[in-house]
Amino acid sequence: MATEGGDKIAVETLGLLESRLQRLAFYITGANELDSLDEKHFADAKAESIQARLQQAEDRLQRLASTSQVVEEILSLYRNHANIFPGASETAEQAAFSNPERLSIIKSCATLFPTTASRLTSIQDLPIPSAESSINLIALHPRLAKIQLLQDSQSQEIINLRLRTASVLQRWYEVGILASGECWTEWDERLMEVEKTLRREEGSRARDAAAI
């Protein structure tokens, strides 16, 4: 049973590989067939052995590379720098783990599988919005655009008001605080000078009175 399951997976994988080769030939050459191969050849290939079909796939890829410089350059790049291809790096990463390590990783994540499956199922149950709702949203787009413009204008006005407020505060500080402080300092110095003059005058009068 295990061998039959493995053979089935191998056959399906080869079928996908042959289909991709056919699409690749179409993308590069613009033809629906790969060289002289046609739909009938792919159908007949299913009756051949897995090893024979794999060899035929390799031969087809080589023939395609011989007729397309792009494919040849990609294969050369893969041979010389396989690490830049996602598939190659994933294979290298997988080879770095032993089977017990892989089994341990799978077991540690096993509890997430039912949760993920449940969430995916719940997504399928979500109702699709009606066409009327989509039409209403589209109709609101011009109004939303106008509101956005108004919001941008108000934001710019707020910025200008902040700049003007900062300028007024700076002016008030310079004139109302610093200038007032300088004025009080000047008055204090003048009062000290007057007080010194009065004391000298009083001392002079006291000396004159003592001399008489």
Summarize the structure in words.
- With 212 residues, the protein is an all-alpha fold.
- The chain is built from eight helices and no strands.
- The protein is elongated, with a radius of gyration of 45 Å.
- The chain starts with a helix and ends with a helix.
- About 4% of the residues have low confidence.
Quick overview:
With 212 residues, the protein is mainly α.
Outline the fold blueprint:
Layout: H1 2-29, H2 39-45, H3 50-67, H4 69-80, H5 86-95, H6 99-108, H7 112-125, H8 131-211
Helix pairs in contact: 1-3, 3-4
Task: Name the descriptors.
212 residues, mainly alpha, 8 helices, 85% helix, 0% strand, elongated
Order of helices and strands: HHHHHHHH
Structural class by secondary-structure content: mainly alpha
Q: State the helical fraction.
A: over 70%
Average pLDDT number: 77
Straight-line distance between termini? 143 Å
What characteristic shape results from the CA principal axes? elongated
Characterize the biggest β-sheet: none
Helical segment count: 8
Show unreliable segments: 33-40
Beta-strand residue percentage: under 5%
Gyration radius over CA:
45 Å
Total number of strands: 0
